[in-house]
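Dock pyridoxal-5'-phosphate; give full complex structure.
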Amino acid sequence: MKVPFIDLGRQHKPIKKELMQAFERVLDSNKFILSDEVKQFEEEVATYVGTKYAIGVSNCTNALLLSLRALGVASGDEVITTPFTFVATAEVIAIIGAKPVFCDIESDTFNIDPEKIKECISSMTKAIMPVHLYGQSADMDKIMKIAHENQLKVIEDMAQSLGAKYKGKMTGTFGDTACISYYVTKNLSALGDAGMILTNEQELDNKIRAFRVHGASKKYHHDFLGYNDRLDAMQAAFLRIKFKYYDDWNAKRRRIAKKYDEALEDVVTVPKINEGNESIYHQYTIRTNKRDPLREFLKEKGVDTAIHYPAPLHLQPAFRYLGYKEGDFPEAEKASREVLSLPIQQDLTDDEINYVIECIRNFFGK
Ligand SMILES: Cc1ncc(COP(=O)(O)O)c(C=O)c1O
């Protein structure tokens, strides 16, 4: 049997007619950039998460970039973040001339370890950028407390966590801003690139809206230098269709995760979801010190897997200039050697789920 890691065709087939109607609606409107489609999608997401404002942009990388700019983070400032994330998180900090300061992760949730944040703070620290990795919230009470005590801004990288909850509250409602990715493999995905910024502050909302259109609060009046960073009407229209099914899809992912948990907990370390957290299981990531042979075995059996992430950012050539070395963040380094993400898309069949389980158990001789 072949089990794909992700097969978007299965997601799109049952809603193809609706997607085609959305395409026609936008085509006929002749409004392709921003527009009412984007405005309505922004309102729908803001209502869903519970923030006052949502600003559609072209992707999450730029959502993080615009957040940093709007919060006044600039050259010479430091931003504390995790080394165990997709490169974009730290990349944008460096791109604007600030310094990413890495902080090790918790061994069980893979999220930034709040107990270690304090030792990363210096007189140059301006912000903390936690990532809600694999769809589970970071420990936001502790992070927000440190931020308030040290007058730091917080940007939530919620690229992977739209709909995830921390103590009953949605991710995206804690930081000064929060950034969503609608990249094609995300739980809620556009048919291309798309992203969004959430905030409760009107001033930030105004600033970010201006940043996304070349720093203009009024057409052809440029208060500062900005970007071309708008969400397309077409992508917003597709996302609005998928958004109707989103909670149902995430519930299905949770059911698959529960099956994996029960069937695999005696052979590998299954994901630890903290009490009070509700994960959207963007990834279902196990850990084992036999990761590479297990992955090879599963490949031979037709089961696709993925590694998020094979090298922590402090050891990537792009960040060598920061001067970090092997051993600086032992938990992130260990995780990068041991993590393996299993197929978790909502459209997996029971046969496929059982087959993945059977293969993993076979590998461990069970
Ligand atoms: C944690 C994290 N941050 C940022 C991004 C960047 O998102 P985008 O691809 O929409 O720019 C991603 C996307 O993979 C991500 O996983």
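Observed: Residues 263 and 292 are 21 Å apart (CA to CA).
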